[in-house]
Amino acid sequence: MDRKSDELILQGLRQGDCKAFDELYMRYAPRVEAFACCMLKSRSEAEDLAHDIFLKIWENRRSIGHIRSLGNYLFRMTKNAVFDRFEHKSVQVRYERQCLATGDFLSDDVAAKIASEDLLMIVELAVERMPEQRQRVFRLSRYERLSHQEIARELGITTKTVEYHIRTALAELRKIIAAIIVFF
Known about the structure:
With 184 residues, the protein is an all-alpha fold. The chain is built from 9 helices and no strands.
């Protein structure tokens, strides 16, 4: 995004300029909705959340301090709103020292911009929303570091089923990460 035009939008917002707000909304609402939809798994809920976020921005337009990046600011607002919806303010990061084994699907530049704690909370929330069996398989694989064969034995399923659940879980996480990347 053009940082200069973002600064003009912020300046206009502080002055109560409706056109600046319209520009902000047209530029960023689709990104906010896409990210929220990935997390909430509901288009209508994501749209409501996006409207709430932009309403808050308009209501607080005069007190908006210096914002370096509208994308980062809106990402944070969206992430916090999603966590609020799921009452996940008290979610504890279970494995701070450990990267996801598939963490390489983020480039170093993007990963550096997203606080690791935020990313882990987003991943944890996404995992919690997966079907129960997929959660178990993913947690055993990524958190407990069990092999596919060990997981299959422990859960009484085939290794092909384990592979399916891991592949599907990773695909879901990649979608969420892709939605996050549009903010940066």
